[in-house]
Write a structure and sequence with these properties.
Blueprint: H1 12-15, H2 18-35, H3 50-53, E1 54-58, E2 64-68, E3 70-75, H4 85-88, H5 93-107, E4 111-116, E5 122-124, E6 127-131, H6 137-140, E7 145-149, H7 154-163, E8 169-173, H8 189-193, E9 197-200, H9 203-213, E10 220-222, E11 250-253, H10 261-274, E12 279-282, H11 299-307, E13 311-313, H12 319-326, E14 331-333, H13 344-351, E15 355-359, H14 364-368, E16 373-375, H15 381-400, H16 403-417, H17 422-439, H18 446-452, H19 454-458, H20 462-475, H21 480-492, H22 496-508, H23 519-531, H24 538-552, H25 558-575, H26 578-591, H27 596-608, H28 612-631, H29 634-653, H30 660-676, H31 682-689, H32 693-710, H33 714-724, H34 733-761, H35 769-784, H36 791-814, E17 831-837, H37 841-851, E18 857-863, H38 875-878, E19 890-895, H39 903-912, E20 926-931, E21 934-936, H40 938-946, E22 955-963, E23 968-969, E24 974-975, E25 978-981, H41 982-988, H42 990-998, E26 1003-1013, H43 1018-1027, H44 1031-1039, H45 1041-1054, E27 1070-1071, H46 1080-1084, H47 1086-1091
Parallel strand pairs: 3-4, 3-7, 4-6, 7-8, 8-9, 9-10, 11-12, 11-14, 12-13, 14-15, 15-16, 17-18, 17-20, 18-19, 22-26
Antiparallel strand pairs: 1-2, 5-6, 20-25, 21-26, 22-24, 23-27
Helix pairs in contact: 2-21, 5-17, 10-15, 13-16, 18-20, 20-21, 21-22, 22-23, 22-24, 23-25, 24-25, 24-26, 25-26, 26-27, 27-28, 28-29, 28-30, 29-30, 29-32, 30-31, 31-32, 32-33, 33-34, 34-35, 34-36, 35-36, 36-42, 44-45
GO molecular function: beta-1,4-mannosylglycoprotein 4-beta-N-acetylglucosaminyltransferase activity
Organism: Niveispirillum lacus
Pfam families: Glyco_trans_1_4, Glyco_transf_17
């Protein structure tokens, strides 16, 4: 016997040394050959199996003698067959496997006896066949190893064990699933202890038995099936496989009828409708189990096959006939509904170059090793048939259209099936295992396990090697060499997830891995992980990718790694596996530092898992990359608002147990996102810094109360603010609470007013409903004037009140009792473009130049006071010379009187002064009520001029709104401008006209112009902030003055909300090109606007 050059010394150092490098390299090379369609040699081509069939025994005189191992196979089904039966008749999978294995063992030199119900006992090609009645217990106990096939009979097993008195071994070899009655006795610990070893045909089957019956793992081994030798050599290396595969396709079903034939027959009409001419050949019966036709319960199914168009019923055939038939079959169509523990039918189809479409069930993912299209199995057979038909058609067409890819796929598939010498390899692996059982009695430790690796390595028994590696790693989890070997073995076993997990572990142990150890199979492993053909959980597959990220992140495999991670993230989302989705997205985010979408996807997963801090941190990271892209869409903004609200609620629920570090992380993230959304982030920042748990809880209550207020839930806001009051610690707490209570009472009055107007206008109240409504308006107006009002609430309620006032005025002006509006004069209407003016000199220049050709008069209203009540210069009056060419068209109205009250009262008073400039206008002339930065398109004004008597009298132009820079646009239209005849403006009021438009009253004119607001840089921004009516925005800016100032400076320097926005700013903005959609005057003077800084930095206008 030639020595096996594998492991010559015991210990970890040996396994990590040169010889371990050799075994790793050889395993990697073998795996590469499988996937490059080259023959796979033994790792030790010169080694002999002779040492594994010889046993050493002590003679009476003290000498030693070697003898051949005596093996017995006992088939407890007692079927009538010999190894020659497979040549002439169908035979069950277990029995076929026993025949091929017995023949291969005999060829290897073992003494093999097959015990069953044969009617023709005797020697068959070196295998002795015996009838079970001629083999009493005393003879069965004489075998060195007795392998019992199939079931576990308790009494028989105990009797056999009792008869084995000289160290003989008793092995159970079963291909049943663990839920079958024939193996149920293994649940009895005494019965299970009888067996020296259990041999299974797949990892799935073994794990099922260990889980069900608590079997000792070290006694459970995997020795797989192989295709029949008749399937070897069907296609020489230079043969064109696809030329033998017909189109329209020929399908085959080769399993037993009860495993899915009914589903396939139900699918056939759909398959033939999609691919006319498709033929199904059914090679199925119970003859393999020696059940005669007159006792076969599936005769009706066979008759259905015979009646169906496109279906040919062949029945069970011997394997030489089946091999020849499958050579010209396009695909194995196997909608399996019975969990297979191995499936020789699939192995044989793979070896015959057939495409395989089947089920993700039992051991099929393991057997097909990524080469088949496997489907989930629906509970309903009809649903299964529909799904199977669709996928089968898709797979057939895909391979038809990819000739080169299909050729490569089928060659690799045939190599994986391993029909050439397959049972000889299995025999060598059996002998290796049995030799170990008969000769190895040492204590199990790392050294002994390393030594035992020699035998399975010699015969390429990857399952046994994998088991030994796992046992080594249980004893020594940091055994780097064992992890490296595990990588190669698991790759060869088509266990991609486990292989990558082992590779990641090896990397963490700082092992220097040469590219030759992993590059050859990395593509196959990543594909296997993405498809999930190894049936490993999603989370484990993602973890495997994360483990190899350091190895693949900087090289040619990074794109493949990202693609695989994306597929897993999609699968995890569909499966509702938030943890796997989060891990996959974070991996991609590491690889793609500028990808916004993947960070938001990760945030979505984190939110679903309740990790609100992480969700908001990911949102903040996306905002730092490109705030415009994040905030420009309503869906993304809504997502961020949802996460923020959920974080607030979660923080409140966990307030008492929240540590300082946790609070700092959560509230810092909340502040960043709130600021980006234009909300007040000062409370979150305070909560992040405070060490007082009570104060933190109070701040959280105030944050949630603010969100309730924005949602209109003021009763809940009041209750939360009541809880937030900290006696002695928060002097403003009662003020906030009382302001909220005042706002609640005002809101209730507004709701009452709304009801009066609705019911009254629809004739469901008395005739004095108008008086009631006006009285309520006066009362609410007086309440709004109280200094205790919150400025934000006052702004909201003022807008609602003015809307109701506008509605009532419009109802009076146009109702059934109102005088009709005057008709346009024959010569046509004049156009009065009316607006308030503050200091927007550049926009005024743009407006006048753009609209002068289509406007008769501009009514420019300029006040001596800001909306806030501060005295201001008359900017137009001071710069009148700049606009001299338009002097004949400009009607300058100066408002020098101040009505007093709060800011919105002044704003309304100044807009109402528009009517002072209409004294010379005819009653049918058209008035446009707007602000200086709201500019209609010239063609829209021309349409208004031409509007006849039969057209509407009130118009609501919708404008594109551009904020801060000319090329930053919000997604929704700006609705505030109104256009109507002079007479209607006089009846309703100039200020009320805008509130009619806001309510949707009037004929909408889409894309009617532009609202260029807050233009001119940071200084003009702050000047407007001090002057305009939204005083709540001023208050929140001042509450965080330094931070907000820094944010503004950053925003105007970059055009992006990288550090968030000040409360009240619009952040849902998108950069747009300055194109034909902009005013012609602006485009002509674009260079001037660029010079003035009105174009966002970093863009080319």
């Amino acid at each position: 016997m030639q020595a096996v050059a594998f492991i010559t010394q015991m210990g970890r150092q040996m396994l990590q040394g040169q010889q371990m490098g050799r075994i790793v390299r050889q395993q990697a090379a073998a795996f590469r050959r499988v996937h490059s369609h080259q023959p796979v040699p033994s790792l030790y081509p010169h080694a002999s199996n002779s040492s594994q069939i010889m046993l050493t025994a002590k003679m009476l005189n003290g000498g030693m003698v070697q003898r051949v191992m005596k093996l017995g196979f006992l088939d407890t089904t007692f079927g009538d067959y010999t190894p020659h039966t497979v040549r002439a008749a169908p035979l069950g999978g277990m029995q076929s496997a026993a025949c091929y294995l017995a023949l291969a063992l005999a060829r290897a030199g073992a003494d093999v006896t097959l015990v069953n119900g044969t009617a023709t006992p005797g020697a068959v090609d070196g295998v002795m066949c015996r009838h079970h009645r001629t083999m009493p217990l005393s003879l069965l106990a004489q075998f060195d190893v007795l392998v019992v096939m199939g079931g576990c009979d308790r009494e028989g097993a105990l009797n056999l064990r009792g008869a084995m008195t000289h160290g003989q071994k008793l092995v159970l070899w079963t291909q049943h699933a663990g839920d079958q009655p024939s193996v149920a006795n293994l649940s009895d610990a005494t019965t299970a202890a009888v067996w020296d070893a259990f041999v299974f045909v797949s990892r799935w089957q073994r794990e099922d038995f260990i889980r069900r019956f608590g079997l000792r793992r070290d006694r459970c081994h995997i020795l797989r099936n192989a295709p029949a030798p008749y399937f070897a050599g069907l296609f020489p290396d230079d043969a064109d496989i696809q030329a033998a595969k017909p189109w329209p396709p020929i399908l085959a079903y080769t399993s037993t009828p009860f495993r899915g034939l009914d589903v396939l027959l139900a699918a056939m009409p759909q398959i033939r409708a999609a691919i006319p001419g498709t033929i199904l050949r059914v090679y199925s019966s119970l003859e393999a189990y020696q059940v005669p036709l007159d006792r076969d319960p599936y005769v009706g199914l066979y008759e259905q096959c015979r009646r169906m168009d496109g279906v040919e019923y062949v029945g069970g055939v011997a394997q030489p006939v089946l091999a020849s038939a499958l050579r010209s079959v396009t695909a194995l169509a196997y909608p399996n509904r019975f969990a297979e523990t191995s499936c020789i039918s699939v192995m044989e189809a793979m070896a015959a170059g057939c495409l395989v479409v089947s089920s993700r069930l039992g051991a099929l993912p393991e057997t097909t090793a990524g080469f088949a299209r496997l489907l989930p199995v629906p509970a309903a057979p009809a649903e299964h048939a529909t799904l199977f038909a669709g996928v089968l058609v898709e797979e057939l067409r895909r391979h038809r259209d990819d000739a080169a890819g299909t050729h490569s796929h089928l060659r690799a598939q045939m190599a994986q099936a391993g029909a050439e010498g397959g049972w000889d390899r299995r025999a060598a692996q059996w002998l290796s295992l049995l030799s170990d059982m008969l000769t190895d009695g040492r204590e199990e430790n790392v050294s002994s396990l390393l030594f035992r690796l020699r035998r399975p390595a010699t015969v390429n028994d990857h399952d046994a090697m994998a088991d030994l590696c796992e046992r080594i790693l249980v004893l020594d989890p940091v055994h780097a060499g064992a992890w490296r070997l595990a990588v190669q073995i698991q790759a060869a076993l088509a266990r991609p997830t486990d292989a990558l997990l082992s590779l990641g572990r090896a990397l963490r142990l700082d092992v220097s891995l040469a590219p030759t150890e992993w590059q050859g199979w990395m593509g196959a492993l990543l594909k296997g992980v993405s498809t999930g053909d190894d049936d490993r959980p999603l989370g484990l597959r993602v973890r495997a990718l994360c483990g190899v990220w350091p190895l693949l992140s900087d090289g040619p495999w990074v794109s493949s790694l990202i693609g695989t991670a994306r597929q897993l993230a999609t699968q995890a989302q569909a499966a509702g596996d938030g943890a796997a989705m989060l891990s996959a997205c974070l991996l991609i985010a590491n690889a793609l530092p500028q990808d916004i979408g993947i960070r938001l996807a990760a945030g979505l997963a984190a939110h679903g898992l309740g990790d609100h801090a992480l969700a908001l941190e990911l949102a903040a990271a996306a905002l730092r990359i490109d705030s415009a892209a994040v905030l420009g869409g309503r869906q993304r903004r809504n997502l961020l608002t949802l996460w923020l609200s959920a974080a607030e609620q979660s923080a409140l629920a966990a307030a008492d147990g929240m540590g300082m570090a946790e609070a700092g992380r959560l509230f810092s993230a909340m502040a960043l996102v709130a600021a980006a959304l234009g909300e007040d982030a000062s409370l979150a920042r305070q909560a992040a810094k405070t060490t007082d748990a009570d104060q933190r809880r109070s701040l959280m209550l105030r944050m949630i109360a603010a969100r309730h207020r924005l949602a209109g839930r003021r009763d809940q806001q009041v209750e939360l603010l009541r809880q937030a009051v900290q006696p002695g610690a928060d002097p403003d707490g009662h003020r906030r609470l009382n302001a909220a209570r005042l706002a609640l009472s005002q809101r209730l009055l507004l709701e009452m007013l709304g009801t009066v107007l609705t019911e009254g206008a629809n004739g469901r109240m008395g005739v004095d409903w108008r008086d009631t409504a006006r009285a309520l308006m006066v009362q609410i107006g007086q309440l709004l004037d109280l200094p205790a009002n919150d400025e934000g609430e006052r702004s909201l309620m003022w807008g609602t009140l003015r809307g109701y006032d506008a509605f009532l005025s419009w109802f009076d002006a146009t109702g059934p009792l109102a005088a009709p509006l005057p008709l346009p004069p024959p010569q046509g209407r004049k156009i009065y473009d009316c607006f308030q003016f503050y200091n927007e000199l550049d926009l005024l220049d743009l407006r006048l130049a753009e609209l002068s050709p289509v406007v008769d008069h501009f009514v420019l209203v300029e006040a001596a006071f800001t909306h806030a009540g501060a005295p201001k210069p008359l900017y137009f009056a001071e710069n009148r010379h700049r606009f001299a060419r338009y002097k004949d068209k400009i009607i300058h109205v100066v408002v020098e009187d101040d009505p007093g009250g709060f800011a919105w009262v002044r704003e309304a008073h100044q807009r109402q002064a528009i009517q002072r400039g209409l004294t010379a206008a005819g009653p049918a002339d058209m008035v446009i009520v707007s602000d200086a930065d709201e500019i209609l398109r010239p063609e829209i004004i021309s349409r208004l001029r031409a509007m006849g008597a039969d057209g509407p009298s009130l118009f609501a132009p919708h404008l594109d709104i551009h904020l801060y820079f000319l090329n930053l646009r919000a997604p929704d239209p700006w609705v505030s401008v109104a256009a109507a005849p002079v007479e209607l403006v006089r009846r309703v009021g100039a200020n009320n006209m805008r509130y009619l438009a806001k309510q949707g009253i009037g004929q909408v004119i889409a894309s009617a112009g532009w609202h260029f607001t807050w233009m001119g840089g940071i200084d003009r921004f702050l000047a407007k902030l001090d002057a305009f009516a939204h005083r709540e925005m001023v208050g929140t800016f001042g509450a965080d003055d330094a931070i907000n100032r820094a944010r503004l400076e950053r925003f105007f320097a970059t055009g992006r909300f990288e550090e968030g926005a000040i409360p009240g700013m619009w952040t849902a903005l998108t950069r747009v090109p300055i194109d034909e959609g902009f005013p012609a005057t602006l485009r002509a003077r674009l260079a001037d606007f660029v010079r003035m800084g009105w174009i966002a930095p970093g863009t080319s206008p």
